[in-house]
Amino acid sequence: MVELTPAMQAMILHWGEMGSTWGLNRSAAQMLILLHLSPDPLSAGEISETLGLARSNVSAGLKELHGWQVIEGSRHLGDRKEYFTAPRDITVLARAVIAARHEREVAPYRAALDTQMAAATRDGTPAPVLARLRETARVMDALDNSARQALDDTLTALADEAASQSQNDTAKPKKKKKKTS
């Protein structure tokens, strides 16, 4: 079981609330941030015990997180349990959330717009209306592409910055403590 500090508990609760806005259920979102924060891989039993969730809820959450491709499972020699980890890099999690939201929010609207434009071409919809539908699709695509590029650039810059900081932290020699007599 992971010993949760008050700050970790608050973060887990907050992620649970945010998860529902991303299309991830509360328990799965809490499990994701627990795995992200945990220094070691955790078994389903450890997740259940730490978060106070039923094992069935943990199993369903792990399946959902696998579907989002944000966790990995591994087995240890001589141990029947599977242990789970989440990426340590928060930008990887951010990319997964953004991709899932896109699939849930933008892609269905864009597909419906394509269907409506095809129907409008066949059913005699007036040319000015069809032109507005096409313009809507063009603007939606441009905004979607711009948003994706901006987010990707930002997340890449943040990941590069974190990697650079990590290298600087490991490259700095540690100062020896002076002995006091």
Automatic annotation (TrEMBL):
<keyword id="KW-0804">Transcription</keyword>
<feature type="region of interest" description="Disordered">
    <location>
        <begin position="158"/>
        <end position="181"/>
    </location>
</feature>
<comment type="similarity">
    <text>Belongs to the GbsR family.</text>
</comment>
<keyword id="KW-0805">Transcription regulation</keyword>
<dbReference type="InterPro" id="IPR052362">
    <property type="entry name" value="HTH-GbsR_regulator"/>
</dbReference>
<dbReference type="InterPro" id="IPR026282">
    <property type="entry name" value="MJ1563"/>
</dbReference>
<protein>
    <recommendedName>
        <fullName>HTH-type transcriptional regulator</fullName>
    </recommendedName>
</protein>
<feature type="domain" description="HTH marR-type">
    <location>
        <begin position="22"/>
        <end position="81"/>
    </location>
</feature>
<dbReference type="InterPro" id="IPR000835">
    <property type="entry name" value="HTH_MarR-typ"/>
</dbReference>
<dbReference type="InterPro" id="IPR036388">
    <property type="entry name" value="WH-like_DNA-bd_sf"/>
</dbReference>
<dbReference type="Pfam" id="PF12802">
    <property type="entry name" value="MarR_2"/>
</dbReference>
<dbReference type="GO" id="GO:0003677">
    <property type="term" value="F:DNA binding"/>
</dbReference>
<dbReference type="InterPro" id="IPR036390">
    <property type="entry name" value="WH_DNA-bd_sf"/>
</dbReference>
<dbReference type="GO" id="GO:0003700">
    <property type="term" value="F:DNA-binding transcription factor activity"/>
</dbReference>
<keyword id="KW-0238">DNA-binding</keyword>
